[in-house]
């Protein structure tokens, strides 16, 4: 198994993702090669919680222009993790 810190890269802190926290759903940027089972195991190990459901999506990078050159932001994979009833991740509490 991969290291859980290599699978979960960082949490997504946006207005929409913070609204999902009230529904017990947490959003993370994850490794592009990670599957749902690896994501579930990584979240359970890192945050000591029980995961109910994992949903993933691939987000394509956007074209951006910097001065006279065009570039592209990197592709990424997001995972929305639903925890079992009564479980919380302390990382998102003070945000």
Automatic annotation (TrEMBL):
One of its GO terms (molecular function) is rRNA binding. Pfam families: Ribosomal_L23 (PF00276). One of the early assembly proteins it binds 23S rRNA. One of the proteins that surrounds the polypeptide exit tunnel on the outside of the ribosome. Forms the main docking site for trigger factor binding to the ribosome. Keywords: Ribonucleoprotein, Ribosomal protein, RNA-binding, rRNA-binding. The keyword rRNA-binding applies. GO terms for biological process: translation. Belongs to the universal ribosomal protein uL23 family. Part of the 50S ribosomal subunit. Contacts protein L29, and trigger factor when it is bound to the ribosome. The keyword Ribosomal protein applies. This is Large ribosomal subunit protein uL23. One of its GO terms (cellular component) is ribonucleoprotein complex. HAMAP family: Ribosomal_uL23_B. InterPro entries: Nucleotide-bd_a/b_plait_sf (IPR012677), Ribosomal_uL23-like (IPR013025), Ribosomal_uL23/eL15/eS24_sf (IPR012678), Ribosomal_uL23_CS (IPR001014). It comes from Desulfoscipio gibsoniae DSM 7213.
């Amino acid at each position: 198994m991969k290291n859980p810190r290599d699978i979960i890269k960082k949490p997504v802190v946006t207005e929409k993702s913070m609204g999902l926290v009230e529904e017990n759903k947490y959003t993370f940027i994850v490794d592009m090669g990670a599957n749902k089972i690896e994501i579930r195991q990584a979240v359970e190990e890192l945050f000591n919680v029980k995961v109910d459901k994992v949903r993933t999506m691939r987000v394509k990078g956007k074209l951006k222009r910097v001065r006279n050159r065009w570039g592209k932001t990197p592709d990424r994979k997001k995972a929305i993790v639903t925890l079992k009833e009564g479980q919380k991740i302390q990382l998102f509490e003070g945000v």
